[in-house]
Amino acid sequence: MSDCNTRIIAPSVLASDWGKVGEEVRRADEAGADWLHLDVMDGHFVENISFGPQFVSAVRPHTELTLDTHLMITRPDKYLPMFIEAGCDRITVHVEADHDVSATLADIRKAGLQCGLALNPATLLEEVTPFFDQIDLLLVMTVVPGFGGQSFMETETMPKVAEAREIRNAKGLGFHIEVDGGIDHRTVEIAANHGANVMVAGTSLYKAPDMPEAILAMRG
What we know:
This protein is α/β, with parallel strands linked by helices. It has 8 helices and 8 strands, in the order βαβαβαβαββαβαβαα.
């Protein structure tokens, strides 16, 4: 696993042109992306529907980048086998979803994948701290999940990022801290200063006039 202090840029395929997904995936790859972020929404856990395991399977042949898959679904445990088979490298599930969190994380790891745990802006950090020794990545949502193009919720989320970093370092753990929502060349520095190292960005990268330049700017 890469060092949790190294800045990682993960374009969100949700913001790409799905009509030419292979080209869009390669475009991010060639622009210098480190990972690709895949936002899976079921229309139940969040009020939007995006794509499922078949879409992940369609992305996989076009890149060797890490597929960082974020399941915003009510029953991640139930659909896990399909996403494992689809070719994900890491699967992140929500602490608020309806499942046994420890068991789901263990199942992801058992399949040879990395596992992540996500929390929404309204969720207290103490909901996820019991699982810190079981994860490779903590995803702090910096917008209310479900839709792209929202504003970065600094006040509600940055204290959680900072506290998660403190706890991680105090316990000698090595998980990444990822932020997702409203990330651009300005907010990326705020997130980094509080302790995040994985930056998920959709609109600000895929809609940028020059994607390589936009990724470079996010690296700081």
